[in-house]
Amino acid sequence: MTSTYDIVRERLQAAFDEVVPGADPVLRRSERSDYQANGVMALAKQVGRSPRELAEHIAGRADLSGVASVEVAGPGFLNLTLSPQLLDSQLRALLEDPRLGVAVARRPRTVVIDYSAPNVAKELHVGNLRSTVIGDALARMHRFAGSTVIARNHVGDWGTPFGMLIEHLLDLGEEEAIASLSIGDLNTFYQGARAKFDADDAFKDRARARVVALQAGDPETRRLWQILVDQSVRYFTTIYAELDVSLRPEDVVGESYYNDMLDGVVADLDRAGLLVESGGALCVFPPGFTNRDNEPLPLIVKKRDEGYGYAATDLAAVRDRVSNLHADEILYVVGTPQAQHLDMVYAVARLAGWLPEHVRCEHVSFGHVLGPDRKMFKTRSGETVKLMGLVNEAIERADEALVTRASGLDEASRVSLATQIARAAIKYADLSTERQRDYVFDLDRMLAFEGDTGPYLQYAHARLRSIFRRLGAPWSPGGATFALGTQAERDLALGLLGLPEAFELALNSLQPNRLCNYLFDLAQRLTSFYEACPVLSSEGAVRAERLALCDLTARTLEIGLSVLGIDAPEQM
Ligand code: ARG
Question: Most buried one in 60, 84, 274, 290, CB count within 10 A?
Fold first, then answer.
């Protein structure tokens, strides 16, 4: 089906085209009417006409018959009111459309999404939460839009710390080390290695020699390194499962994967005349990047003694993603502090000709997760907060609440439901915050069944499903038509028709919170509808219509939540 937005836009477009071909009507949802076209003012300026007069002209020329009525407002807004015929036919089309009007891309794009990226032998902590949750939502949204998504979990599995980690593994003995890593005690392991490294010179020497052996490809060293990687990835995978994150072990393509490509990266940068030696390091100075003193800023590709670093790996990764994976778009879901690093990587990759203009690289940055004191979230003793601990605490709390609420559930179903609620709470709190802003991790607020929360939306969905359960027989829309006799029904209907543009807006701006806002708004329209419109106790055509609205709302919530990575349980 064609979305309501596209139908209205197309009709308006013809009238805008008559003035300047391709002029954007800037059609938006509006508080004052169903839609508002804000594009007249810019157009009037462009052609040197009075905005009001041009608005009147366009309103008169636009063929909106059967679609909407139009009224000129303010300095030159077009306020559009959708016609009853359009609402009815669009809602009936929605009933038939499993995608609820959201289009599938005509030309599928390949989108590489770099997300989660924890470090091997380090705990997945609250600092990894946002990349994981936002990245996974974007992956699901892009898949739903018809793109080919290639997830890249760029784990930190290389570098100097592996010398001490491997030596520590040998000191503990393989079996013991594996035992402690496999239960997810990564921090203890890492800190143990670190403590020895700092205190014991002999250990430090062994660790240094081990790094050299690792880089030289010594087979036994590689085998020990692989144990660390495998155990960590196994542990990460259990957390992904717990959170229902769609990353698979094969999406782990860590820093080490690019090792063999690094010589080529440097050789090609050199051949292109981009490489500069500076203080013993090999650097590229991309134009436009300067430090506080206005001096050119280097991207360090190879340090004097430490070999290739983080930047070289990222350059190799861009190259791989463009030429081998054929990315049309690469998204880096990485914390804000790495903004400059990433910008420099893109700039150098473009200079080197590895990143063609048509491939979009975007840093999907995000703010911090804060503790209750609004400072960086830390444990009381000042340590990083383990993600696993947070998830488990959320599940326990959700479960406790269910014990009192839903007494009819057996234990297994209750725990599974609690898990779904806990995930929804954590993911929605993250996704519904504007990405760049910080937010406070507050389980009480996140788990609440009221307010702008994941569980609230899940509950709205489950309550709708319960209406259909109470029917006692399978429901089908039959010949439901939409008269929308009350304001509450019309408001709900307009909400239902808005999924395509909310989805598109969220995806194009890479802001999942736009979709969250839409779903929360829809749930509020539903509440007003319940207040004004009895469903099961109504009769005849009105009852059929209201049930159809309920069905559409349930399906909209379900799809909206699922593309965010959130379950919509049938019963709560
Ligand atoms: N492992 C890195 C960190 O912990 C994040 C990697 C982000 N991705 C990338 N391609 N640089 O900071």
Answer: 274
